[in-house]
Design a protein that fits this description.
With 274 residues, the protein is α/β, with parallel strands linked by helices. It contains 11 helices and 9 strands. Helix 2 crosses helix 3 and helix 3 packs parallel to helix 5. It binds ligand C2E and calcium ion (CA) (3 copies). The site of one calcium ion has 4 residues, from loops. This is EAL domain-containing protein.
């Protein structure tokens, strides 16, 4: 009975004000954080299911806010996207990750790949090609060692425009992944028109594996469809041995998730090959 009463209203008002205050504070702080290099990159291993070998890593941004602690990219990337900050963050991330990966490949003598997430604003940035090319060149990293991940939702905003941008990126020799597949409304026909190399199955599907037959059917179907057009399939958010086993049986190529390794700083990522 209190849902529309004055007490209730005030409660929402306070909660809303707190959310807005936190947001304002983070927005102002993010600019300083970029300059102070409070942002850093964590790396999570990507494992080949058939062999258990680590074939690469995904770069995931972190922000150590001095007062509030570690802030998730889920919270600060959208804020950065609302201003020009995302471009600066994107450039820094590409530079850091290509350099880190070039170093790690030299140390280990392995052909590992690093995957970097691109936001919608970055894909729209006319300087993106130059930024990617320059980062690779400066780091002396071969283009095939870089994979750029773009979410299904970003790609589907403007499929025709995206196709042209992806084509140009691909000419550089980098590989391209569709991220969070299954969370948007991409149709198979639309997907086939995009020049992609990798399809990443969202963790919401992986979570259901072992609980529902239906989920197995869906994931198996995605894998078969992706393979039929030559895509490599990576499953995200694998947390148990059981999920890994099912994915392997369904023919999924690679996987990442807490079961294989958490995102970690460069100091600990990819232990030297035995
Ligand atoms: P994403 O690209 O889908 O990344 C996967 C997310 O799942 C990461 O969250 C990762 O830490 C988390 N994860 C990995 N394994 C597991 C698992 O086994 N279980 C569960 N529950 N979660 C797992 P994170 O690091 O918080 O990043 C969230 C999102 O922020 C990313 O989702 C990506 O969309 C975005 N993001 C991160 N770094 C960047 C970046 O450098 N640029 C852009 N534009 N976006 C980024
Ligand atoms: Ca990703
Ligand atoms: Ca994802
Ligand atoms: Ca996601």
């Amino acid at each position: 009975a209190k849902t529309t009463g004055p007490g209730r209203y005030e409660f929402f008002d306070v909660a809303l004000r707190e959310r807005l205050q936190r947001r304002l504070r983070l927005e102002q702080d993010l600019r300083r954080a970029v300059l102070n290099e409070e942002l850093w990159v964590a790396y999570q291993p990507v494992v080949e299911l058939a062999t258990g070998r680590t074939v690469g890593v995904e770069a995931l941004l972190r922000w150590n806010q001095p007062v509030l602690g570690v802030i998730s990219p889920v919270e600060f990337i959208p804020l950065a996207e609302e201003s020009d900050l995302i471009n600066k963050i994107g450039i820094q991330t590409l530079q850091t990750t290509t350099r880190d990966m070039a170093k790690r490949r030299r140390e280990l003598g392995l052909d590992l790949q690093v995957a970097v997430n691109l936001s919608a604003r970055q894909l729209d940035d006319p300087d993106l090609l130059v930024t990617v090319e320059r980062a690779l060149h400066r780091a002396m990293l071969p283009p095939e060692a870089l994979c750029l991940e773009i979410t299904e939702t970003t790609l589907m905003r403007d499929p025709a425009g995206a196709a042209m941008k992806l084509q140009a990126l691909r000419r550089l020799g980098v590989s391209l992944a569709i991220d969070d597949f299954g969370t948007g409304y991409a149709s198979l026909a639309q997907l086939l028109r995009l020049p992609l190399d990798v399809l990443k199955i969202d963790q919401s599907f992986v979570r259901e594996l072992g609980h529902s037959r239906e989920a197995e059917g869906i994931v198996g179907g995605i894998v078969a469809m992706a393979h039929s057009v030559g895509l490599i399939v990576i499953a995200e958010g694998v947390e148990t041995a059981r999920q890994a086993k099912i994915l392997r049986r369904l023919g999924c190529d690679q996987a990442q998730g807490y079961y294989f390794g958490r995102p970690e700083s460069t100091k600990s990522w990819l232990p030297p090959a035995a």
